[in-house]
């Protein structure tokens, strides 16, 4: 995504009905929530979307649905590489791009086996570029099936092709983030950081924005941080917002994405907590943690002098 679109890119949830089918009316409501919050774009069909638990048809149908609801208001990116040969992955990339996305995201851990060298990985990336001519691509250092991080040198080589415009970074290391940003400076490219611990530092270093699971709890707060991270009159408030996210990281990660859906329900969003992904149960202690989190968020909003 272009640097002019700097801001928050939600990693979208997939709402399900109680019988496990995709709840498309709820997906509409969720998409509208992100847009109302001020999202600069949307990342559909990602790990938070339970993409590995969706069929190929469901992946495409949910992407098309999001694109239709957005109706050009913001760009949409979506994952396009899954298990299979490189040719099969390239074919699905074309289908995802045909669904109306701005760019198709490649999962770094699915382009080469974990034991494969960087040279092998690089070769497969260039093969994918060759087999998807003209389609803008991006990378996601997804934790599954294993996390393969890109070096600054690798990212520079890929971005210099003019085809790679997006990167969701999960290295958890601000120095690596800075190195990557320096390596691609001057290119039409956006790095979106997933790690809230150094969110403000990443934005100040030149990241195009944030793309984190915390946005599935309080998207407005992530947007506020992206808009105000460098505001000299709000230094204390910015620091407090980042501390809020760091302090509550355990609550937000516990049995995710169930907790995110429960948090949204606490805020009055009509969404089921059903997930296909086996992450644990919504126990009474988990519920209590989320309820306390929502209360803390309400107090933080008052501190920031936001409307209730």
UniProtKB/TrEMBL annotation:
<dbReference type="GO" id="GO:0008840">
    <property type="term" value="F:4-hydroxy-tetrahydrodipicolinate synthase activity"/>
</dbReference>
<dbReference type="InterPro" id="IPR002220">
    <property type="entry name" value="DapA-like"/>
</dbReference>
<dbReference type="InterPro" id="IPR013785">
    <property type="entry name" value="Aldolase_TIM"/>
</dbReference>
<feature type="active site" description="Schiff-base intermediate with substrate">
    <location>
        <position position="168"/>
    </location>
</feature>
<feature type="active site" description="Proton donor/acceptor">
    <location>
        <position position="140"/>
    </location>
</feature>
<comment type="similarity">
    <text>Belongs to the DapA family.</text>
</comment>
<dbReference type="Pfam" id="PF00701">
    <property type="entry name" value="DHDPS"/>
</dbReference>
<keyword id="KW-0456">Lyase</keyword>
<protein>
    <submittedName>
        <fullName>Dihydrodipicolinate synthase family protein</fullName>
    </submittedName>
</protein>
């Amino acid at each position: 995504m272009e640097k002019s679109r700097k801001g928050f890119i939600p990693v979208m949830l997939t709402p399900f009905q109680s019988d496990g089918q995709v709840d498309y009316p709820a997906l509409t409501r969720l998409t509208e929530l992100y847009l109302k919050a001020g999202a600069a774009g949307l990342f559909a069909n990602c790990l938070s979307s339970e993409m590995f638990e969706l069929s190929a048809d469901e992946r495409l149908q949910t992407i098309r649905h999001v694109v239709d609801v957005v109706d050009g208001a913001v760009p949409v990116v979506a994952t396009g590489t899954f298990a299979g040969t490189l040719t099969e992955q390239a074919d699905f990339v074309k289908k995802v791009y045909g669904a109306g996305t701005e760019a198709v995201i490649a999962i770094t851990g699915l382009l080469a086996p974990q034991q494969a060298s960087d040279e092998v990985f690089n070769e497969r990336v260039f093969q994918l570029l060759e087999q998807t001519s003209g389609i803008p691509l991006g990378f996601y250092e997804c934790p599954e099936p294993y996390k393969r991080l890109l070096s600054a040198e690798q990212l520079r080589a890929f971005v210099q092709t003019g085809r790679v415009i997006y990167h969701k970074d999960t290295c958890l290391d601000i120095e690596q983030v800075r190195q990557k940003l320096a390596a691609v400076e001057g290119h039409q490219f956006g790095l979106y950081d997933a790690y809230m611990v150094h969110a403000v530092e990443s934005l100040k270093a030149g990241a195009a924005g944030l793309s984190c699971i915390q946005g599935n709890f309080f998207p407005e707060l992530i947007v506020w941080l992206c808009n105000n991270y460098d505001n000299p009159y709000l230094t204390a408030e910015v620091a407090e917002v980042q501390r809020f996210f760091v302090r509550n990281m355990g609550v937000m990660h516990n049995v995710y994405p169930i907790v995110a859906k429960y948090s949204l329900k606490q805020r009055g969003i009509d969404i089921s907590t059903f997930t296909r992904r086996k992450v644990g149960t919504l126990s009474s202690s988990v519920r209590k943690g989320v309820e306390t989190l929502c209360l803390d968020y309400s107090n933080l909003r008052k501190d920031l002098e936001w409307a209730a």
